[in-house]
Design brief:
The chain is α+β, with helices and mostly antiparallel strands. 19% of the residues lie in helices and 29% in strands.
């Protein structure tokens, strides 16, 4: 399962903050991310791959809560 709760990300102080809607995708389910250029699709994929860390919220890729993993665990996850 993949789920996101209260997910907020910004590329830095003074930059636009984006709050992603909460979502949950069951195991063996699908997630389609659509939208025009500049609506943070790639950023969401980078968050899900643990390449970026959200400022707030939690992203769970069953059974891992990405925000609770150590740097070493994140490396193994990736």
């Amino acid at each position: 399962m993949i789920s996101a709760h209260n997910l907020l990300f910004s590329y830095g102080k003074g930059k636009t903050e984006l709050t992603f809607p909460d979502f949950s995708v069951p195991s063996k389910g699908s997630l389609i991310v659509l939208g025009p250029s500049g609506v943070w699709k790639t950023t969401l994929m980078h968050l899900m791959a643990a390449l970026l860390k959200p400022q707030k919220g939690d992203l769970v890729l069953n059974p891992f809560s990405l925000g609770k993993l150590t740097p070493k665990q994140l490396g193994t996850f990736r």
